[in-house]
Amino acid sequence: MTAPELPTDLSRLRVLLVDDNAALRGALRVSLNAFGCAQVIEADTVDRALDVLASRPVDLIITDWKMQPRDGLDFVRTLRRKPASPTAFIPVIMLSGYSDRQRIAEATAAGVDTFLVKPFTAASLAGALSETLSRFSGHADTGHAAHSPAN
C-alpha cells in the first residue's frame, strides 16, 4: 500500500482503535502503520478502551459507532462527560456505516471531531487524520496531541 501524504509525522502518535470487528481493526492498524504510526493500541469493547485510557496516555481515538454491548456514541459521551478529565479533549474519529446527516450531527453533538464513513480507503483515512490533527495544537512538535482544541 502506498501511503497518502500526511502533513505531519505520525511516528510518535499513540492511537487507540476501538471496534468489535477484529478484521476492521487490522485494516486500520495496517493503514496507520503505513502512514508511519507505530503506536497503535486495540480494544474490542468500550469497557476495554476505557481500561486502556485509565492505564496509558493516548493521543487519538478511532472508534466504530455500532458495537455491543456499548456503542461508540456512548463511548464518546463517556469521554466528554468529565471536562476536567484528560480524556475530555482527546481527538476522536468516528468510523461508521451510517452516513445520513442526522447521524453525523448526533455524533458531532456527542463530541466526535471527525466522521469517517465505511467503507474507508487509505486516502479517506488519511484525510480524516489530517482534518482531525489540524484542529489540535502540539501534535506536530511533540508527536502527541494536546488535550485541548486549538482555537
Describe this structure in words.
With 151 residues, the protein is of the alpha/beta class. The protein has one domain (14-142): Rossmann fold (3-Layer(aba) Sandwich), CATH 3.40.50. It has 6 helices and 5 strands. It has a 5-stranded parallel β-sheet with strand order 2-1-3-4-5, with helices on both faces. Strand 4 (92-96), helix 4 (101-110) and strand 5 (114-117) form a beta-alpha-beta unit. The longest helix is centred in the N-terminal third of the chain and has 13 residues, at 22-34. It starts with 13 loop residues before the first strand and ends in a 9-residue tail after the last helix.
How do the strands and helices of this protein lay out in sequence?
Elements: E1 14-18, H1 22-34, E2 39-43, H2 46-55, E3 60-64, H3 72-80, E4 92-96, H4 101-110, E5 114-117, H5 122-134, H6 139-142
Parallel strand pairs: 1-2, 1-3, 3-4, 4-5
Helix fraction by DSSP (H/I, runs of at least 4): 25-40%
Low-confidence stretches: 139-151
Number of strands: 5
Q: What is the CA-based Rg, rounded?
A: 14 Å
N→C terminal distance? 35 Å
The amount of beta strand, in percent, is 15-25%
Silhouette: globular
* CATH fold name: Rossmann fold
User: Please, what is the average pLDDT?
Assistant: 86
